[in-house]
Amino acid sequence: xxxxxxxxxxxxxxxxxxxxxxxxxxxxxxxxxxxxxxxxxxxxxxxxxxxxxxxxxxxxxxxxxxxxxxxxxxxxxxxxxxxxxxxxxxxxxxxxxxxxxxxxxxxxxxxxxxxxxxxxxxxxxxxxxxxxxxxxxxxxxxxxxxxxxxxxxxxxxxxxxxxxxxxxxxxxxxxxxxxxxxxxxxxxxx
Amino acid sequence: xxxxxxxxxxxxxxxxxxxxxxxxxxxxxxxxxxxxxxxxxxxxxxxxxxxxxxxxxxxxxxxxxxxxxxxxxxxxxxxxxxxxxxxxxxxxxxxxxxxxxxxxxxxxxxxxxxxxxxxxxxxxxxxxxxxxxxxxxxxxxxxxxxxxxxxxxxxxxxxxxxxxxxxxxxxxxxxxxxxxxxxxxxxxxx
Lengths: 190, 190
What we know:
Two copies of one chain form a homodimer.
Chain A: E1 11-14, E2 23-26, E3 32-33, E4 38-49, E5 52-60, E6 69-70, E7 73-75, H1 82-94, E8 98-109, E9 114-123, E10 134-140, H2 153-170, E11 178-181
Parallel strand pairs in A: 4-9, 8-11
Antiparallel strand pairs in A: 1-2, 2-3, 4-5, 4-7, 5-6, 5-10, 8-9
């Protein structure tokens, strides 16, 4: 951020009165430009058939992580709810109609200023098809998940939590809500 | 938003290529200025003593809703996690140290582009004190909650869910996760 979006004068970093952190402030018109984390929301679309559980993944047609696999997910928009966002992203990226269930995971990704939410979902039919941001859309059983080609750590964690809970549910347990903080950028050397 | 924060030229509303909604777009430098919902995060700080459960509320010293009571909560900041935000806001607004428990509620407020999250928490001591954004901080039992003077519907819903679950927990049940969409602005005539 270089200029004030209200008056076009240059902004500078300063700690406003009664605040305790630096913000982009316009000394011409006084506007304080707060910057806050964004929500990325998606679903885990599940198809059960012949006793086998498979999950719908999308191969990304856009950067970042072009060509890697992800659960359908994207930035929440203004004037929608978190469940609206999960359904919309699933339709936009995978052409898939779903019945949405409980919130399943919340993952903090503080270094990129994001919070990711995933809802469990049931795929309503097999009429899915890649949207403009996907190269392919495909169902994967647990054994088939391309773990080394998953686009984002939050998706890998959510899939691991899901298949762990699925095993629990098959033994009479139930799905639960999972949360995790992801601190390191993917591919970082630490 | 009137001007581009990157190049100071006027922005206009337009649907970018491969998008399906209007964004503020700069025709001079090509920057698309996305606007997304913000997370408001807080806690339900609980003090148990002599068999009585009380919750810590703050009387707001700032607009909106000056003079009304709220759970400690505020906008999540970049580079923190959702639990960091809950602890920070509880300390800033109520001077209170807490042990944080599970995520308790998620409330969508689409007309103001917000998602509110509240965590259950245990107050660690009685050394609380109003921060700069609070006039008073006070413990309330269920019977004492000032229901008609609660600042925000998301706080009222969260408190109702909390005391319902507390009754359930006293009968051998447990706390669960709650979600609700709040569509109407407070005081709207519909």
